[in-house]
Specification:
alpha/beta; Rossmann fold; 431 residues; globular; five-stranded parallel β-sheet; eight-stranded parallel beta barrel; binds sulfopyruvate; TIM Barrel; 44% helix; 17 helices; single chain; binds magnesium ion
């Protein structure tokens, strides 16, 4: 009996999937590959039900003979093992990053004479509605909020990119690249105080208040599903911080990072060029503890950000604070540095990890941007935040276009620097 294999990466079965299965059945015994959670995440398809439930769902379909787990999105692990006579797939993977996977599958099949069968891709109102419903489910506070905790367990390192508007949120949500046969995407979104302030033409000194920050978060949430980490500056007064925790938790933010500075906070990248004061361990611990006490779900997290290395107060001070903040209830530690190499970050992470294997470690490699995610992961880092790159990419491009129009008294010369609007709006979903 011949076999026909198809890979599923869905939580809901619709008409399109049934068509693929019907075609598969014509060719032999039907085997479904359930793509693993880890691979689904890299594929930008976050699962709303766990793998074992997806397997049960696929097994319950009448014409399915067997379900196996597929651990690699480019079929590397599964085709040589299962050696299906046919791989059946929709015909919607010939362009863009998906084409690489298709070509790779054809190569794998050619090695033993297997064949690829393609079925016209089903796109109708029902299919669109099912996809939209899944997306909306993921954007609901109860799903979004817990997603960061799940990702920390599932991903080698949680890749987080800054967003400060609906449009940058869409870039964080939808950008997928193919590299060496693997797809990649960002896992989470950072709402930076620096970029949120800069976007409003304001300095990063806690001038943009929480109501305005919430507006930015809401704009991002409207168009995304990925978990959000908020840069909460110093957290402000403890008496206010506890109320803000409740609000953030209720709207579905996953974590807030507060930094152990006090008074008029200035951006860390200024380091010791400006006067900045670190809070006492005691004060900051009581702010963390009050925040943890205010929180209502087990999903929300408070990360404590240590500024000892930024303010040149030494490694020992950083480590002492890390111990105290964890003891006070912090779910994670963000250690910051403005060195151009990652050595002091590595030293901190190694020393911290030798004492504490579990607490989440977060870093922001803006100045030491030569460091790779692999290196950070080896030193025990769980979350990497690319804190301001989208804004820094946009600003020079906008300035150049403005200057070109002024110099030429028309927009023609600027046009070659500009993306057609119809390409930009492909990011925007219609309802
Ligand atoms: C931010 O993005 O606002 C941060 C990170 O706090 S940093 O700018 O590096 O201080
Ligand atoms: Mg900040």
């Amino acid at each position: 009996m011949r076999t026909a294999y198809t890979c599923f990466c869905t939580d809901v079965i619709h008409e399109g999937h049934l068509k693929v299965l019907k075609e598969a059945k014509k060719h032999g015994r039907v085997i479904i590959g359930a793509l693993s959670d880890e691979e689904l995440i890299r594929y930008n398809k976050y699962p709303t039900i766990p793998l074992d439930e997806r397997i049960k769902l696929y097994r319950s379909i009448k014409c399915v003979d067997k379900v196996v787990v597929q651990n690699s999105m480019n079929y590397d692990d599964v085709i040589p093992r299962v050696k299906p006579d046919y791989v059946v797939h929709g015909d919607n993977w010939s362009n863009g990053y998906k084409a690489t996977i298709r070509n790779h599958v054809i190569e794998l099949l050619e090695e033993y004479g297997g064949k690829l069968v393609e079925v016209p891709y089903t796109i109708n109102e029902d299919v669109i509605k099912t996809d939209l419903r899944l997306k909306h489910k993921l954007s609901m506070p109860e799903y979004r909020r817990k997603r960061l905790r799940d990702l920390i367990k599932m991903c080698p390192i949680v890749k987080t990119i800054e967003a400060h508007s609906g449009l940058t949120g869409l870039i964080a949500e939808k950008t997928v690249v193919e590299n060496n046969g693997k797809l990649d995407q960002f896992d989470a979104i950072w709402v930076s105080s620096l970029c949120d302030s800069t976007d409003r033409g304001k300095p990063d000194i806690e001038l943009v208040d929480m109501s305005a920050r919430l507006r930015t978060i809401s704009d991002i949430m409207e168009v995304t599903t990925k978990p959000i980490i908020l840069d909460g500056d110093t957290g402000g007064l403890t008496e206010h911080f506890v109320y803000n925790i409740r609000t953030l938790e209720r709207i579905g933010v996953s974590a807030v990072i507060i930094e152990d500075k006090t008074g008029l906070k200035k951006n860390s990248l200024f380091g010791t060029e400006v006067i900045q004061k670190q809070d006492s361990i005691e004060n900051f611990c009581s702010k963390i503890a009050a925040g943890k006490k205010a929180q209502l779900t087990d999903d929300f997290m408070i990360f404590a950000r240590i500024e000892s290395l930024i303010l040149e107060n030494g490694m020992d001070d950083a480590l002492e604070r890390a111990r105290a903040y964890v003891e006070a209830g912090a779910d994670g530690i963000m250690i910051h540095s403005r060195q151009t190499d990652p050595n002091e970050i590595f030293e901190f992470c190694d020393k911290f990890r030798s004492e504490d294997k579990n607490t989440t470690l977060v870093v922001v490699p803006t100045s030491y941007n030569c460091v790779t995610e692999d290196e950070l992961e080896k030193h025990g880092v769980n979350i990497v935040i690319y804190a301001n790159q989208l804004m820094r990419a946009a600003f020079p491009a906008m300035k150049k276009a403005a200057e070109s129009i002024l110099v030429n008294h028309r927009a023609l010369e600027a046009d070659e620097m500009l993306m057609p609007f119809k390409d930009i709006i492909t990011l925007i979903d219609e309802l």
